[in-house]
């Protein structure tokens, strides 16, 4: 089994869209809409912001990550393409997941049959290095406070809690790695 971690290419859009839907616990019935958004280079979930894990040249996982300084512009474009009927004040009154100076690890998913092989850790390490290379001070992510095992997993990779935030009315830990 040959595992490769690489930057995404346009042909990876289907697994990028699947990753977002999986991370958001959404049905794949919305796949067409998400494929369209992930094909756009100027959205949060763009293939341009994605890192792909392949096994024997077949995509099996994805991590979407980007410079936090781009968050506002990416969020506006993403939400208007995916949730165009949403009241714009909801976007304005929702906390910011990412900030200037950080490389934000937004969404990650690995096909179930390829989990527990170290692929997630490899994706995160690749993203962390990519963030450092782009000049970001640290990498960050959010973890649902109701998922202590997930928080513990990220801590084993070197992430540390540096706060909490409410996002869409739900509480999350903010974690970062320098």
Largest sheet: 7 strands, mixed
The CATH superfamily is identified as Gcn5-related N-acetyltransferase (GNAT)
Class in CATH? Answer: Alpha Beta
* N-to-C SSE string, H for helix and E for strand: EHHEEHHEHEHEE
Strand percentage: 25-35%
> How many structural domains are formed by the residues?
1
Low-pLDDT stretches are none
What is the third-level CATH name, the topology?
Aminopeptidase
Helix/strand/pairing category: alpha+beta
Counted beta strands: 7
Helix content: 25-40%
- Please identify, by name, the CATH architecture: 3-Layer(aba) Sandwich
Helical stretch tally: 6
Query: Overall pLDDT, averaged?
Result: 91
Morphology:
globular
Cα separation of the termini: 31 Å
Oligomeric description of these chains: single chain
How many whole angstroms does the radius of gyration measure?
A: 15 Å
Task: Order the strands across the largest sheet as they lie in space.
Answer: 1-2-3-4-5-7-6
Question: Helices, strands, pairings?
Answer:
Elements: E1 3-7, H1 13-23, H2 31-39, E2 50-55, E3 58-67, H3 71-82, H4 88-92, E4 102-110, H5 119-133, E5 138-144, H6 148-156, E6 160-167, E7 170-177
Parallel strand pairs: 4-5
Antiparallel strand pairs: 1-2, 2-3, 3-4, 5-7, 6-7
Helix pairs in contact: 1-2
Describe it for me?
The chain is an alpha+beta fold and 178 residues long. It has a single domain, classed as Gcn5-related N-acetyltransferase (GNAT) (Aminopeptidase). It is 34% helix and 30% strand. The chain has 6 helices and 7 strands, in the order βααββααβαβαββ. The chain has helices at 13-23, 31-39, 71-82, 88-92, 119-133, 148-156, and strands at residues 3-7, 50-55, 58-67, 102-110, 138-144, 160-167, 170-177. Strands 1-2-3-4-5-7-6 form a 7-stranded mixed sheet, with helices on both faces. The radius of gyration is 15 Å and the shape is globular.
